[in-house]
C-alpha cells in the first residue's frame, strides 16, 4: 500500500465476467498445443523421410535384394484411414453443438476404425518382406512404420479414454473440445500414415 | 464475489485484502513433501529448473577443472585415457544438455515468461512440472552412469562409428542416447508451455508489437526447439536402435551411412547454439533497456533479427561438417549462410550499443555482467566468422582453437547473461537483494579467469594441439600455454565460490528488495517480491511496450475472473484481446508419477527392447490418471450457454 502522502490511485476496470468459459477450434489453448505437438511429430516424420531418401542414394537397387512390401494389407489399411476421417469429422462437427450422443457415437465408430487399423497394421508388418536386421533399407522401413504404429496406438488409447468419458457426466465443455481436438490429431495420423504408405509401398516400386 | 471491496492496483497488493486472501487460498500449492511433488506453479518449477541446472553446472565445472589439471603437464598420469574420455564427454553433455538449455531456456523462461505476460500461471502447468521431473531423470541417468564407471566416453555429439555397436560395446553410449531422449522431451514440453503462454495468456493490450523483446525471443526459441529437438531425438534414437536391436542406419556395410548421423545431429546442433544464445540475448535486451533508462533502440530491427536468427539457424548446420569431404558447392553455400548470421546478431549488438549510447547508463551489478557479455561474446563471434571460412576451418578443425571459440560463444552468450539475469531477478525470486560488492568480486574473478583460460586456448589450437587427447609429449612445447590456461581455473573457481556465498548470505540477510528495486518497466515488477501464489491481484492490462514506465495511473485491471477456482484469461494471439476464460488444472501428483513410469521405461530400454512393451502399460495408466477429469467445478459449461465456436 502506498504511503499516506500518496494520492490514492484507483485503476479503471475491464470486466471479463461475461466471457465464455469454453472455446472450440483455434481459440482453444489445447488446440494450439496440439498444433505444436503435431509440428514436433511431423518434424520427426520429415526427418525419417529424409533419412529414407538419403539412404536410397547409398544403394544401387531399391529395395536392395528384397521384394517390395506386399500391397494387400497396406492398401486395405489406407482405405480404412481414409474412411475413418468421416467419424472423426462428425465428432469435430458435433462437439461444439453439445450433441453428446453424436459425439459418443462418433468416438465409438472412430475407435473401431482405429482398432481395425491397428489390427491391419500387425498384418502389414508380416508382409514387409524384410526384417529390420537385414540392411539399412529394412531398418528404415520398419522404423517408419513402427513410429507410425506408435502414433496409431496412442490415438486409439486416447479415443478409447474419451469414449469412456463420454459415458459419464464429465463429458462437458472442455472434454467436448478435447474430443474435437482428438479428431484433428486423428487427421494427422491419417495424413502421416498415407505418406508412410506412399514411401514404403509406392517408392519401393518405382524409385 | 465481494463487490464492495475497492479495486487496488497490482503494486498496491500487500496480500491483506479479502480478495488477496481468497486468491491465495485458491492458488496456493500444497505443502510438505507430498505437496512438493504436486506443485505445478511456474515460479516454483522455474526456480527448481534453475537450481538443478546450476548444480549440474558446478558438477560440469568440476569435470572441466579435472581436464585442466590433467593437461597441466605433458604425460600426466592423473587420469588414464578411459577416464579422460568419460570426463570430457560428461563435461560437454552436462554443460549443454543438463545446464545450458535447462537453465537459459527452461529455468528463466518458466519463471519469467508468465510474469512478464501478466498471467497467473504458465499454460499447461502439469506438463511443465512433468518436464522438470523428466529432466531430473535424464540428469540422474547420465551421472549415475559416470558413478558406476558407465559414463559415456564418445564425445558430447557421440559420432558414429565410434559410438556404434562395433566400437563402443557396453552401455556407455546407450546412456548418452537415452539421456538425450529425457532432456529433449523435457525441453519440448516446456517449449509448448512457453509458446502457448506467450501466444494466449498475454495481458489485454499487450499486442505483438508491444511484447517485451524477452517474450519475442522466448517465442522464437520455443519454436526453434519444436523444430530442432526432434532431429537429435531421431539421431540418438536410431543410434540406440543400431546398438540395441541390430538395425543398420549407420552401418556402411549394410547400406547405412555414418554421415547421416552427423546431418541429423547438427540439424539440431546448430539451432541449439541459438537456443542457448537467444535467451542470453533476451536477458541482455531487458537489462540494457532497464539500466539505460530509456526505451530500447531499434525494437523492430531487434525483433526481426531474432526471428531471422531463428530461421538462419536451421540453414548452417553443415559448417560443422566441413572436414567430412562435402561437395564444394555445399561448402560455399553453408559458408555464405554461416556468415549471414552475422547480420542479425550484429544488428542486435548495434541496437544495444545505441541504447546505451543514448541512455543514462547505470552501472549496477547486473549491467556489469552485461558489459562482460559484450566483450566475451564479441570475441567468440569474431572467431566464429573466421571458422565459417572453409580453409581456416580445415586448418584448425578439432584443435583447441575451436574449443576456445565455442567457449567464448557459449560462456559469453549464456553464462555472462545468466549471471546478469540471476542478479537482476534475484530480488524478485527471493524478496532480497544480492550483495553488490560480492557480486563485483565474483564478476572480476570470473571474467579474468575465463579470459586467461580460454584466450590462451586459441594459441594452443593454432599451435596444433588437438582437443580430446588425454595427454601430449614434452616435445610438443605445449606445456607453458597449458599451465597458463589451467591457472585461470583458480580465478573462476574463486569467483563461483564468492557467488555461492553471496547467494546463501543474501537469501537470509540481503536487503529487502520491495516490488521493483531496479525500476524496470516489465510487468513482473508490479507485484510484491517474491510473487504471491496468484502472481497478480488483478490480471493487468497494458497500453505500451514498457508498462510500468508508460501506463497511466488509472490503467485498467481485469475484473470478473472467479477467485474460488483457478480461472485464467485467454487472449488473442495477435492483438491480445480477451477471448475467453479457462481453468488452471491445479496441483497434481500425476505429472511426477508419469515422469517416474516414463523414466523407468526409458532406463529399461537401455538394457532391453522389451522395456518398451513392458513399460508402456504403467506409462499409459499414469497418463490416464493425469488426464482423467475430476473435481470439475460447477460452471456454466454444462449448459453450453457461454461457449465460443
Care to describe what's here?
The complex is a heterodimer of chains A (207) and B (645). Chain A has one domain (48-206): Four Helix Bundle (Hemerythrin (Met), subunit A) (Up-down Bundle). Chain A is 70% helix and 2% strand. Chain A has 5 helices and 2 strands. With 645 residues, chain B is mostly helical. Chain B has 2 domains: 43-524, Cytochrome C Oxidase, Chain A (Up-down Bundle), CATH 1.20.210.10; 597-632, no CATH class. In chain B, 63% of the residues lie in helices and 2% in strands. Chain B is built from 19 helices and 4 strands. In chain B, α12 (365-387) runs parallel beside α15. Chain B is globular, with a radius of gyration of 25 Å. The model of chain B is unreliable at 636-641 (pLDDT under 50). Classes of the chains: A mainly alpha (207), B mainly alpha (645). Chains A and B meet through β1, β2, α1, α4 and α5 of A and α6, α7, α8, β1 and β2 of B. β1 (13-15) of chain A pairs parallel with β1 (557-559) of chain B.
What is the CATH homology-level superfamily of the largest domain in chain B? Cytochrome c oxidase-like, subunit I domain
Number of strands of chain B: 4
Helix proportion of residues of chain A, in percent?
Answer: 55-70%
Q: Evaluate the radius of gyration of chain B.
A: 25 Å
The secondary-structure class of chain B comes to mainly alpha
Q: Mean pLDDT score of chain B, rounded? A: 94
CATH architecture of the largest domain in chain B: Up-down Bundle
Placed side by side, the strands forming the largest sheet of chain B appear as 2-3
Largest sheet of chain A: none
**Can you count the beta strands of chain A?**
2
Low-confidence stretches of chain A: none
- How many helix segments of chain B? 19
- Give the H and E element order of chain B: HHHHHHHHHHHHHHHHHEEEHHE
Average pLDDT level of chain A: 93
CATH architecture of chain A: Up-down Bundle
How many helices of chain A? The count is 5
Largest sheet of chain B: 2 strands, antiparallel
Terminus-to-terminus distance of chain B: 28 Å
Q: How many structural domains in the coordinates of chain A?
A: 1
Name the overall outline of chain B: globular
Query: Which two chains form the greatest contact, residue counts included?
Result: A-B, 59 and 77 residues
